[in-house]
Amino acid sequence: MHSLYQRANGLTGLLSSCLIGLLALVALTSFLFPAHPKGDVNIKTLKVRWGQIDRHPAQEWAFVQFDLQTDLESLFHWNTKQLFVYLVAEYTGSKGVANEVVLWDRIAKIKYVFRDFNKTFRNASAVELSVRYNVMPYVGVLTSGEVGRTSKERFPALQTQG
C-alpha cells in the first residue's frame, strides 16, 4: 500500500505533466492563425527647432506629425495577451551613424523626444518612419513584425521659434 505522500506525489506529477502538455498545445496552435497586418503611415509635417527641453542641453529637436492607418485585427486571437505597436524613425546622422528612434507607442501612450546625439540634424540623411509591432501571447513565442513604412523625407532647415 502507498502512503498518502506517495499518492499526492503521483497525482501532482500527473497533473503537472498534463498541464505542460496542454500549454504546449496552446503555444503550437498559435501558429495556425496567419497574421497579415496591413498599414500605411505618412509624414504630415517634419520640423526642426532649436531649444531646451527638460534637463537636456539646448540643441536641435525634430518634431514630426504623422497619419497612421492600420488593420491589426489578424494579430488578435485567443492566445494574444497584449499587442505593442510603436513608430520608429530611422536615419543616418551627420557623422555617419545609423540611428533608430522610437517616437510613439500604443500601450504607454508616451510621445518620445526626437533628438540627435550630435545635437544637430544638419547633414543627416533623410528620415524614414516605420510602424512595428510585438505580439505577446499568454503562452508561446513572442512574435514581431513591421506594418508600414514611409518614404524617405529630408530634414528641413532649422526653424526659429515664434
From TrEMBL:
Pfam families, alphabetized: SPC22
Localization in the cell: Endoplasmic reticulum membrane
PROSITE patterns: PROKAR_LIPOPROTEIN
InterPro entries attached to this UniProt entry: SPC3
Keywords annotated in UniProt: Endoplasmic reticulum, Membrane, Signal-anchor, Transmembrane, Transmembrane helix
Example GO biological process: signal peptide processing
Transmembrane segments: 12-33
GO cellular component: signal peptidase complex
Topology term for the membrane: Single-pass type II membrane protein
Keyword presence, Transmembrane helix: yes
Family: Belongs to the SPCS3 family.
Function: Essential component of the signal peptidase complex (SPC) which catalyzes the cleavage of N-terminal signal sequences from nascent proteins as they are translocated into the lumen of the endoplasmic reticulum. Essential for the SPC catalytic activity, possibly by stabilizing and positioning the active center of the complex close to the lumenal surface. Essential for viability.
The protein's name: Signal peptidase subunit 3
Native source species: Hydnum rufescens UP504
